[in-house]
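hey
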């Protein structure tokens, strides 16, 4: 093999290595985003339920406070 072929093979190997690394990062980011979306959805549902419960408690307490 000549020096030119060795450099070409090294460049191709480096290109494929970088391409694989970036592809892995992309897949990891997509998977993380899916997990993040699921967690944030659960958190939003829980927050909505808590706010609704607090509003019910406040609504129930309003007539009691008016009699005082």
């Amino acid at each position: 093999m000549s020096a030119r072929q060795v450099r070409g093979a090294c460049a191709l190997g480096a290109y494929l290595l970088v391409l694989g690394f970036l592809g892995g990062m992309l897949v990891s980011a997509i998977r993380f985003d899916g997990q993040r979306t699921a967690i944030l959805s659960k958190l939003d549902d829980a927050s909505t339920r808590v706010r609704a419960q607090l509003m019910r408690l406040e609504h129930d307490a309003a007539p009691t406070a008016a009699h005082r």
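The chain has a mean pLDDT of 92. The CA atoms of residues 5 and 11 lie 10 Å apart.
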